[in-house]
Amino acid sequence: MNIIDMTISGLHAALKSKQLSSVEATKAMLERIETVEPQVGSFITVTADHALECAATADLRIASGRMDMLTGIPLAVKDIFLTEGIRTTCGSRILENFIPPYSATSYQNLRDSGAVLLGKLNQDEFAMGSSNESSAFGVCRNPWDTTRIPGGSSGGSAAAIAARQAIATLGTDTGGSIRQPASHCGCVGLKPTYGRVSRYGVIAYASSLDQVGPLTRDVTDNAIMLSALAGYDPKDSTSVDEPVPDYVSELAGGIKGLKIGLPKEYFIAGLDPDVQKTMDAVIETYRRLGAEFVEISLPHTDYAVATYYLIATAEASSNLARYDGVRFGHRAKEAAGLLDMYTKSRSEGFGAEVKRRIMLGTYALSSGYYDAYYVKAQKARTLIMNDFIKAFESVDVMLTPVAPTPAFKIGEKVNDPLQMYLSDIFTIPVNLAGTCAMSLPAGFSADGLPIGVQLIGKPFGEEVILRAGYAFEQATEWHKATAAL
Ligand code: GLN
Question: Which domains does the chain show, CATH number per domain?
């Protein structure tokens, strides 16, 4: 098998049996990146020299018998993760030359297991977007059809896997940013429960919603990645000190008797026919595997997008106040005094979508509007969260579409923010509720575009959705399809 086609588990076995070295695997990935990058644009920074150094160290570690599942595996991470000594832009001009002095815990955990960093991946600016089109560092294209978006905001993280430029990647998900691109690019993407993975050193967008998670070729790899990422971190006060299950050994448990809820509000008229067809086929497969289906209701679903765009923008306006040109980031050259320096630095550094969000959020938090918008949104969030708690009394997991349509054309929605915001209608409620969910490759549109389905789990029930995903994967071939690129 070609190195670039391998999974983590496959490459691990090849490294362990000394069929391959990590340096060989890393070289193969770097060559692949060089060949297809002009057509895809998944990377903002390729760290070739660093990758080869990591790989040489990993080979020594393998030789000495201290091998971990990720030792020597070439990975890449979204450019939102602070990587000590390696440029981190978050897709923004304002951080174009920013070299962080420390690393994110999640990234550090991968490195501590001996993983190799190939580079930093393209994304929407400050993770705001659903198409990767708000990146300040160029277009990222969907490897299945390069006239289309890869999804966003972790567009590079999904495209890099589909283009076989990395074995697995790391993304973040505030309202769908792991699951939606995973669905559009045909990979497995998991958003863990809020608090499951440390957010320390992840550039903040909306702190009460942001969560780190893996994008991979198959469910087994996702479980391997999550095992390396999950757990309490004293540096993140919102990370939760809950025991971490052995996600890999739990995979094969089967799903006989599993109760799957179908929330009726998610099966709306106007759902793309290809997405609907995929859902129907998936339900059929799960029935065959012994699952039981129950219709459930999440009655406040209609309020989710509005609630999200008040809470996320309010938190963003506060989080992004730190980019003032004083301590780090872009500083305007010619300014008449401090206020002018702040204004010019921010005007020059931020792109249009980020400015729109800051204005929306600042407005929602301003005196006179705070109660009408921000407080109201918090109340709606509680209702949405309660919907999930109530529904999970009668089911083990929920099954829904990930996105209302397959990947759309580049440019199709850039001038219509409302249409863009509606791309996340099925993923946003999960972040508001704080629970976990996964996107799983489940079929193709008539045009040959990948379509994913979403499995939503109970808080800290990642092992249950992984097991359900694994059972589906064992019974189907979708995850084996590769883009022709
Ligand atoms: N598309 C949503 C937004 O623009 C979600 C982004 C995300 O999950 N980071 O806010």
Answer: 3-259+394-480 (3.90.1300.10)
